[in-house]
Amino acid sequence: MRGVAADRQATPAERLRFALALAAGKGTGAAGRLLNVGGGTSLPGAVARRIDPLVLQKVASASTARKAMITGSNGKTTTCRMLAAIARNVGVSVAQNRTGSNLLHGVTSVAVREADMRGRMDAGLLLLEVDEATMRRAVPEVVPDVILVTNIFRDQLDRFGELYAMARMLEAAVETLPPRAAAVLNGDDPLVASLARHAVARRLYYGLRVPDAGTDVPEHAADTIRCVRCLHALDYRRVYLSHLGDYECPGCGSRRPDLDVAVTEVRSSPTGGTDATIETPAGTMRVHVPLPGLHNVYNTAAALAGAFALETLDPASAQSALAGLRPAFGRLEEIKADGRLIILSFVKNPTSYNATLRMILQRPGPKHVLAAHSNTPVDGEDFAWLWDVDLEDLVPDLTSLVVSGTRAEEVALRLKYAGADPARMRVIPGREAALDAALARVPPDEPLYILAGYTPMREFRRIMQRRGWVPPFWEE
Question: What angle (nearest 5°) sits at the alpha carbon of residue 412, between those of residues 153 and 333?
Answer without folding.
Answer: 55
